[in-house]
Write a structure and sequence with these properties.
alpha+beta, four-stranded mixed sheet, 2 helices, about 25% helix, elongated
């Protein structure tokens, strides 16, 4: 880290054991991403819940190139469990950030809209006319909502286009209620 780790306590006494635990967990975060600019950890006691014992809150603020990551885990009776949960969440968020920076984030294909052109209920198949006039095949298994049996010729549907063995086909087909005048 470019800026030294900062650990602060609110509503509780400073503990060398907790500082050591935070330092260990923060150094593990650097294994996932070695360009963390700064890390600030706040451990606090929430004194409002007297019937449930002490409730701890851990907040972690990470500064990384291209953004900041903030995680808060609240209300656990064991400060070590709250600390573990907060660092686990920070690690997951850091991993997501690294994947996004590398471009490893999966991009979903854009959803298209079309109309049902033909249905064969007995065979459980149908065809959708895409906006460009092409027909795309779909089967009962590709229908998300409503059930295949409720589809009708002329219905507007949304779908994802996919390359099938015999040409383009529609996946994740979903029909929506007709708008007035449709």
């Amino acid at each position: 880290m470019q800026i030294p780790l900062q650990v602060s306590f609110q509503g509780m006494a400073r503990s060398d054991a907790l500082v050591a635990a935070v330092e260990e967990k923060a150094s593990k975060l650097e294994r996932y991403f070695d360009r963390i600019t700064s890390c600030r950890v706040v451990l606090a006691v929430d004194g409002r819940h007297h019937r449930h014992g002490r409730q701890y809150r851990v907040r972690i603020d990470l500064t990384v190139p291209g953004g900041e990551i903030a995680v808060t885990r609240e209300h656990h009776e064991d400060v070590h469990v709250a600390l573990r949960d907060a660092f686990d969440a920070a690690r997951r968020r850091l991993e997501d950030h690294v994947r996004a920076q590398r471009g490893d984030v999966k991009r979903h294909a854009p959803e298209s809209t079309g109309r049902i052109a033909r249905l064969d209920a007995a065979a459980g198949i149908g065809f959708i006319v895409a906006p460009d006039g092409r027909e795309l095949y779909f089967s009962r298994e590709n229908v998300v909502a409503p059930p295949f049996e409720h589809l009708a010729v002329g219905m507007t549907v949304h779908f994802l286009e996919d390359a099938g063995a015999e040409g383009p086909q529609a996946k994740r087909v979903s029909a929506h209620r007709r708008a007035p005048g449709d």
